[in-house]
Design a protein that fits this description.
Number of helices: 2
Strand content: 25-35%
Shape: globular
Strand order of the largest sheet: 2-4-5-20-19-21-17-18
Order of helices and strands: EEEEEEEEEEEEEEEHEEEEEHEEEE
Length: 314
């Protein structure tokens, strides 16, 4: 999605608009005829090798789990080196895992006076221990459903894969499929919500559109940002970083938007235990901050955004 540092975004509108940028327009997935399918991952013995998610019978051998070296306390994070697809494109996946019961999760809306302003991780409040950009946006502001402090700021956008990340009044997060959003907008229990595209996983399975019969772009490579939930309720945040520049790699070069395809990102989320996963705005917007004070780790983006998700300790 396009944004420019210094750009003052227009007020949030209630009209449904189409997200712009490298992502394809949301379209309905084709159902798989009711057959039971599950992502099996790859048959490779190398846990760093990532291929597109595969929809195969449940008896299939599960994919290898990465052996990660963890940092941090409340927010535990690690870096997972991966090689993507047949080309072996090298990336690093920043993996953050946190118990949402220990956090207060809210949207962060940057403002310049009475108008929306650009947000980067530099604008994250000092008390935040996790901050990252949120959903899709257009030139005039956020795209799709936005709810902040129990008040709707924008109506849901159209798209069968355009789900939402939401937090209820008790602080429990959820990923809501697109077909549930009309009812969700009438439900007062959702305190915070932001819509994005596409949903990757639902009930532990890849969405059918990742495997067959839709206009979803399955081959485009880009920097990715994903939010997910594990079966045990833990929250996952995954950020990809380019790592194929050899020994001359710099922090600027790693922000080049070359990363997993959408099916590869679904495979990554599954390997890390996600049962629900939603893509947030990636590309040049993808950015993440973990920790605070001297213990802060930062992965900046290359452009500002109008919305973010931040987590503060309870």
């Amino acid at each position: 999605m396009r944004a420019t540092t210094g750009l003052v975004f227009a007020s949030l509108a209630t009209a449904s608009v189409t997200p712009m940028g490298t992502q394809s327009r949301p379209r309905a997935p084709v159902r798989s005829g009711g057959s039971t399918a599950v992502a099996s991952g790859t048959a490779h013995l190398d846990a760093t090798r990532i291929d597109a998610v595969r929809c195969q019978p449940r008896e299939a051998t599960p994919a290898l789990q990465p052996n990660l070296r963890w940092h941090g306390s409340i927010v535990r994070w690690a870096e997972w080196p991966v090689r993507l697809g047949t080309e072996g494109v090298r990336n690093r996946i920043i993996v953050a895992v946190v118990d949402p019961a220990r956090l207060t999760l809210t949207l962060e809306i940057a403002r310049q006076g009475n108008a929306l302003g650009p947000w980067t991780i530099d604008e994250a409040p000092p008390e935040a221990i996790l901050a990252f950009n949120a959903g899709q946006f257009t030139d005039t502001g956020p795209w799709g459903w936005v709810r902040h402090r129990g008040r709707d700021r924008a109506a849901p956008g159209a798209g069968a894969l355009a789900g939402a990340f939401a937090v209820d009044t008790a602080g429990k997060p959820a990923i809501l499929p697109a077909h549930t959003l009309p009812a969700a907008t009438l439900d007062a229990r959702w305190e915070e919500a932001v819509q994005s595209y596409p949903q990757l996983l639902m009930n532990g399975l890849p969405v059918p559109a990742l495997c067959e019969g839709s206009d979803l772009d399955r081959t485009h490579r880009d920097a990715r940002l994903v939010i997910g939930l594990r079966r045990d309720g833990m929250l996952l945040v995954l950020l990809s970083r380019y790592a194929d520049a050899g020994s001359g790699l710099t922090r600027a070069v790693e922000r080049v938007p070359i990363g997993p395809t959408t099916p590869e990102m679904a495979e990554i989320a599954l390997r890390l235990g996600a049962t629900e996963a939603l893509m947030l705005d990636g590309g040049l917007s993808a950015q993440l901050r973990i920790g605070r004070g001297e213990e802060t780790s930062r992965w900046p983006g290359l452009r500002a955004v109008p919305l973010a998700i931040v987590a503060r300790p309870r």
